[in-house]
Design a protein that fits this description.
The protein is of the alpha/beta class. The chain has helices spanning about 15-25, 40-45, 50-65, 80-105, 155-160, 175-190, 210-220, 310-325, 355-360, 375-380, 405-420, 425-430, and strands at about 5-10, 30-35, 110, 115-120, 120-125, 130-135, 140-145, 170-175, 190-195, 225, 230-235, 240-245, 250, 255, 260-265, 295-300, 340, 345-350, 365-370, 385-390, 395-405, 450.
């Protein structure tokens, strides 16, 4: 008789949890998963996927406008939010089904209920105790809103995907990924959009030149309220009044609080075991994603390392392989490429200039700001920016940054080169594809200066 009901019990069927289930099951483990909300987690349901679909919709506004300079003309263009939402819902439901079928096809036992840890090797789910040799927590995060008078009148990024109609005027709180992406999206879909951020430049943590550049670009289509703090939100008839600490007021129909996400560790029963939490509620783990309780592991947004879907996938796979095979390859967090789907997009991989200097590198910087060929006819006053950070000693490119249309698609390919240790000489001897925006990466020869 087996000492445990399962070899692995996973709490959360998001990206990291489902990947761990699949890999563990393929390696012969008896696996179960509990999911109380929706299969696919944040990314599929209220994150990356629906947000990117909304971003595609928003880009059509630019495309229609830009096409006039190329000879196109049309009348009676209009946007119908209900059509976008309905089609988005169909696609998300399809993806939910795929995630569930992946679990079924791998013979993973599914509990569509909340699971709580009740001991080092046990969980309570559906009113009964289930035991497991290993437990993996992969419950992700949840939107967080700072508390102030009227903060309950805000909506979260989760709520946006379910709203039935588009507001005429919206204010977005925050200056990170989610805030700048939604501000760009809503402004293109016809909303009068304001973006409120306490800092002086958007996207803290990104390269400072990129921050300055994108803040200027976003300011061309969004009303920016930088270095601004909200003191209160009041409901006035059918409108909301946003009161700032410096005394001014902004009126709008909706306030979206895109002020970050926190690990969803409340009410998981973690107090019954020796799992340690950080101040923000994140589960503390070692390099093997093991908690202070040896039988319990955690991956993804709940450990608050790098909150990206591909990272959670990689972490979940590493845990499963380490537990049920001889593969104990560690997670490498260096050179993780990422994109921000604002307008224009940002793609980045490697170190920012500031991080490179802080890490002790002596660097050369190459950068270029230019107007893309497309806009010589479209008439759009939108520029692009490219920046390379090069380690002077080895000539390796240790940071690559792009602000441009489809930046994520371009940087994905270049991130392979960065991970392979490509040097500036490798870039220089590469023949560019002409005419493309991406060829700028292999034509830059003039250093900005010596740091």
């Amino acid at each position: 008789m087996e000492p445990f009901d399962y070899d692995l019990f996973v709490i959360g069927a998001g990206s990291g949890g489902v990947r761990a289930c699949r890999i563990a099951a393929s390696l012969g483990a008896r696996v179960a998963v509990a999911e109380e909300r929706y299969f696919g987690g944040t990314c599929v349901n209220v994150g990356c996927v629906p947000k990117k679909l909304f971003s595609y919709a928003a880009h059509y506004f630019d495309d229609f406008e830009d096409s006039k300079g190329f000879g196109w003309s049309f009348d009676n263009l209009r946007f119908d939010w209900s059509v976008l939402k309905a089609n988005k819902d169909i696609e998300i439901n399809r993806l939910n089904g795929i995630y569930k079928s992946l679990l079924d096809s791998n013979k993973v036992a599914i509990f569509e209920a909340r699971a709580r840890i009740s001991g080092p090797n046990e969980v309570q789910v559906e009113g009964k105790k289930v035991t497991a040799k290993h437990i993996l927590v992969a419950v992700g995060g949840w939107p967080w809103t700072p508390e102030f008078p009227g903060s309950e009148l805000t909506v979260s990024s989760n709520d946006v995907f379910a709203m039935d109609q588009l507001p005429a005027e919206i204010a977005v709180m925050g200056g990170g990924y989610i805030a700048v992406e939604f501000a760009s999206i809503f402004s293109r879909l016809g909303c009068k959009t304001s973006l409120i951020y306490r800092g002086d430049q958007l996207l803290r943590g990104f390269d400072e030149d990129i921050r300055k550049f994108i803040t200027t670009e976003i300011g061309t289509h969004v009303d920016l309220y930088l270095e601004s703090d909200i003191s209160e939100i009041q409901r006035k008839n059918n409108k909301l009044d946003v009161l700032f600490k410096l005394g001014s007021t902004l009126s709008c129909d909706m306030v979206l609080a895109a002020t970050g996400r926190l690990p969803l560790t409340d009410d998981l029963g973690l107090e019954t075991v020796g799992v340690e939490l950080a101040k923000n509620g994140a589960i503390k783990v070692n390099e093997h994603f093991q908690t202070a309780e040896p039988s319990i592991y955690a991956v993804g947004d709940v450990i608050d390392r790098v909150a990206l879907t591909p990272v959670a996938l990689a972490e979940g796979q590493i845990v499963a392989r380490a537990l049920f095979s001889d593969d104990e390859k560690p997670m490498d967090y260096r050179n993780i490429a990422t994109a921000v789907f604002c307008h224009p997009n940002i793609g980045t991989v490697g170190l920012s200039e500031q991080a490179a200097v802080e890490a002790g590198f002596e660097i050369d910087v190459y950068e270029s700001v230019f107007r893309p060929l497309k806009h010589t006819l479209s008439g759009r006053d939108e520029k692009s920016m490219i920046k390379l950070i090069v380690d002077r000693e080895s000539d390796r490119v240790i940071g690559l940054h792009l602000v441009a249309a489809d930046a994520g698609e371009i940087v994905q390919g270049l991130s392979v080169a960065i991970n392979c240790g490509a040097t500036k000489a490798d870039f220089d001897r590469t023949i560019g594809i002409h005419p493309t925006l991406a060829e700028e990466f292999v034509t830059m020869r003039t250093k900005r200066g010596i740091s």
